Amino acid sequence: MLPTIAASPPQLPLTQHHDDGSIIAITTTTSPRPPAAAPLVPPEPPSIKEGSKAMSIQQYHTNASLSDAWRTINIDALTEDSSANFDVSTLAPPQPETTEDEVRQISGQVRQLLRGGDAEGALRGALDTPVYNGTDAAKDAHLQTIIEVLQSIKASDMSPLLKSIYGSPGGSEALDVLMKYMHVYHSAPSREEPQLTS
Fold first, then answer.
1. Which of 5, 10, 115, 117 has the fewest beta carbons closer than 10 A?
2. For the whole prediction, is pTM greater than 0.85?
């Protein structure tokens, strides 16, 4: 195999004139210019095949709807206290169903106590028998009974009466029932609110 011989750079002849008329030939060596650098072109991003269309990564993420994909994981299912992990009906014991006839009987007993002047007994009797499970008519009838008792109590007697109920056995639970019925009453539209003091 023959050795490789590097090509020598080209030599350019030059002449120099002196005062005596002699001419001297001078040779110079020129170095080749380095090749020009190629312009930098950014590489094309890899493409993702989707069906028969080629899409760039930028186009793929731009066209994908983030609103459709951000909620793919049910976060509530990973929370221990979430209602998705247990039956919320077990938080309260099952309530017996109260019929409309039973509500009318309770209302008659409450009105009888009112006629006898026992407003505290009438209110306590209505609050001790709340209608949690029953028809809408039964619930509304019992609500009207409680409102009727409250309207019959004087404003000056309301605070002492409620304090007396609170100090009796089961009084805090009875007042909790009263607050629930007040919330239902004031949440209902187009009702004439009675003048009550708390």
1. 5
2. no
